[in-house]
Design brief:
Elements lengths: L10 E17 L5 E19 L4 E6 L12 H13 L5 E6 L11 H15 L6 H8 L6 H6 L3 E4 L4 E4 L9 E6 L6 H6 L14 H7 L5 H7 L3 H9 L5 E4 L6 E5 L2 H14 L4 E6 L2
Parallel strand pairs: 3-4
Antiparallel strand pairs: 1-2, 2-4, 2-5, 5-6, 7-9, 7-10, 8-9
Helix pairs in contact: 1-2, 2-3
The structure holds 4-diphosphocytidyl-2-C-methyl-D-erythritol and adenosine-5'-triphosphate.
The site of adenosine-5'-triphosphate has 18 residues, from helix 1 and helix 2.
Length: about 280
């Protein structure tokens, strides 16, 4: 795997996360759930940039900046944690271009925190490996270690025990993301899970595991956000390889053989309704 910490720019993409499958196995005594998931990452997302400064600060712009706090933001939480653990005395003037909808099941804040760790590791001249950054990321959220790698991987435990999958498995495939502009709380959706263990992920290629898999959070999310049924029907109508909800929702995804097919499906969805956010891309 190439070392993502090596790079020259003062910018980093917070890649959108997709759970190609998400099996919830058990509620643990601490309230978290044991899951089995396939994480995959689009080549699109939020963008974080940095300039030299004495203090740590954050400005937010972009289509989903509104309503996000710039003081307890996950970007600053990640920056403070990295500075503290690495004995960094300098600051950083951070900027977040918020392009992904907030609380939408595609990582969002988790991807931002992870991208901040990669960016500042470089900017402050630290030499943490990706594995070390993933470890540092653990307390920031269940999804943050996977977002540090931003590579297709299998996640177990609470989603933080990661096995990286061969890089080329999703090469050439594309995805369309569609969100009904309804924010969904991850904790609420896990709490509404029916407690039934429907079994582990399958074995085989990523595509085979994804196609034979499920998202166990889809049912509780549809109960809370009924318009998700329309989103999934719209995607099914575009004859994708598969369509499903990502994470705790409400973003749904569809997979295609080409980016052109994803673009065609996006046009159809946008003709059908204005009240959606969409993003298409290829896999990293
Ligand atoms: C649904 C997924 O996005 C799938 O990748 C993740 O499991 C959630 O990751 P996340 O948003 O980074 O989650 P966190 O911010 O750590 O947790 C938010 C809340 O979700 C619930 N939570 C999260 C992860 C997990 N394995 N079990 C849980 O029950 C907990 O109630 C927790 O308080
Ligand atoms: N940089 C950030 N971007 C988005 N949300 C943030 C950020 N920093 C803090 N938050 C808070 O985190 C909460 C969860 O948002 P986020 O977008 O990470 O959820 P999500 O898309 O459901 O993620 P996941 O797929 O990991 O469950 C939001 O309600 C928001 O208040």
């Amino acid at each position: 795997m190439p070392d993502l910490t090596l790079g020259m720019t003062n910018e980093e993409t917070a890649y959108a996360k997709i759970n190609l499958a998400l099996h919830v196995r058990e509620r643990r005594p601490d309230g978290y759930h044991r899951i089995e998931t396939i994480f995959a990452f689009l080549d699109q997302g939020d963008v974080i940039s940095v300039e030299p400064a004495d203090q740590l600060t954050l400005e937010i712009s972009g289509p989903f900046a509104k309503g996000l706090s710039s003081t307890d933001n996950l970007v600053l939480q990640a920056a403070r944690r990295l500075a503290e653990l690495s004995g960094v005395a300098q600051g950083a003037r951070l900027h977040l271009d918020k392009r992904l909808p907030v609380a939408s099941g595609i990582g969002g804040g988790s991807a931002d925190a992870a991208a901040t760790l990669r960016l500042l590791n470089r900017f402050w001249g630290l030499d943490h490996s990706l594995a070390a950054l993933a470890d540092i990321a653990k307390p920031l959220g269940a999804d943050v270690p996977a977002c540090v790698y931003s590579r297709t991987c299998r996640g177990t435990g609470i989603g933080q025990d990661l096995a990286i999958i061969a890089e080329n498995e999703l090469q050439g495939y594309a995805a369309l993301l569609i969100n009904p502009l309804v924010a969904v709380s991850t904790g609420d959706i896990f709490a509404a899970w029916d407690g039934i263990d429907r079994g582990p992920l399958g074995e085989g290629t990523v595509m085979a595991v994804a196609r034979s898999g499920r998202n166990d959070l889809q049912k509780p999310a549809v109960a809370l956000v009924p318009i998700l049924t329309d989103m999934l029907q719209m995607l099914d109508g575009s004859e994708p390889i598969m369509a499903q909800m990502s994470g705790s929702g409400a973003t749904c995804f569809a997979l295609y053989d080409t980016l052109a097919a994803a673009a065609e499906a996006e046009r159809h969805c946008r003709q059908a309704t204005d009240n959606i956010w969409t993003m298409k891309g290829e896999f990293r």
